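Chain A, query sequence.
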Amino acid sequence: MAKACYFFAADATYFPHAVIAARRVMNLSASLPGLILTTKIPQHEIELAHQFLGKAVQIVDVSAYAEGLNVNTFRLGIATYLRLFADMLPEMQTFNRAIYLDCDVIVNVDLAALAVTEMIAPLVAAHDDQRYFDDEFRKRLSMPAGAPYFNAGVMLLDLDTIRRDRLFEKTRIFAEEQRDICKQHDQDALNIVFMNQWQTLHPKWNAMTNFSGHIKYADAYIRHFSWGKPWWKRPLGVEQQAMNEYYELTKDTPWASMYQGKSDHLGFFVKRLGRSFDPLLGLFGDKRAKLRTPYNAFNAQQTQIADANSLLLARWFPEGSWKSDPRQLEFDPATDPASTSKLDDAVR
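Chain A, predicted structure.
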């Protein structure tokens, strides 16, 4: 059986959020060791983190690896690239598999169920539905028409294959050599290097908050706050149940005041309402709105669930293929054996 771990990556700005997210995982996944890859964190913050995480989560300074990395850091900084050194770190050499998690997630189940997922590719990740509304990324990265794009916020990594085939090394090289086109930082580079080498992750493992209709918090195995963040003053799209969970996780920490916002239901409603104007905007030349108009979130998620349960490589989709046409669904989710219920049973 593969030996697995989970890990986060954070700079000083995101370090408190990584600690809180790791604390949540630690409470639910006692069998899995954890790590937080960091760079230049003040010692007093590290000592605080040890108070709440104990020995269950290692804090590993990877500054020496990141120094001299000439990459695009305009929005997220160098921290997002730290995960690309998982293949090199001595602290991770004993692991065959690793679950990477962004700091803006809250885990609701034991990650051991994800760690034992059967893998047919070196990486398992969730389709980034937002990318299908806009082919800009394919043009910018010279990807073929219909090429899928994954969100790197939650990834299951086959470290043995990644080391053997030097996949993270190739990703680091691409991120440096093509820094000007990597607007989504290392996520762009990962999508190029792992093209045709990643399989679909069940969407409940990376339930992103988008405004086309997303998986409810209560049903998500991992909620990824890809829009509003729980620590924002107006946490757009963050459910009140999630805010309550963060309060419980932080009330005995110095960071509690960062999570005292109220769920911004009004802003979330307004954002969703804006989507109703997509058909009109499409008529006036807004290509992204035109592509988004026929999108059906339920159909997309059911297709992704079927692909994940069938252990399929990421499906290629022509632009605008997420439609309401029932022919896009090849099975009835209420009766098909590739339904979501089997996975729900497995994580409980």
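The chain is about 35% helix and 15% strand. Strands lie at 4-10, 34-38, 57-61, 97-101, 105-107, 123-127, 150-158, 198-200, 207-208, 222-224.
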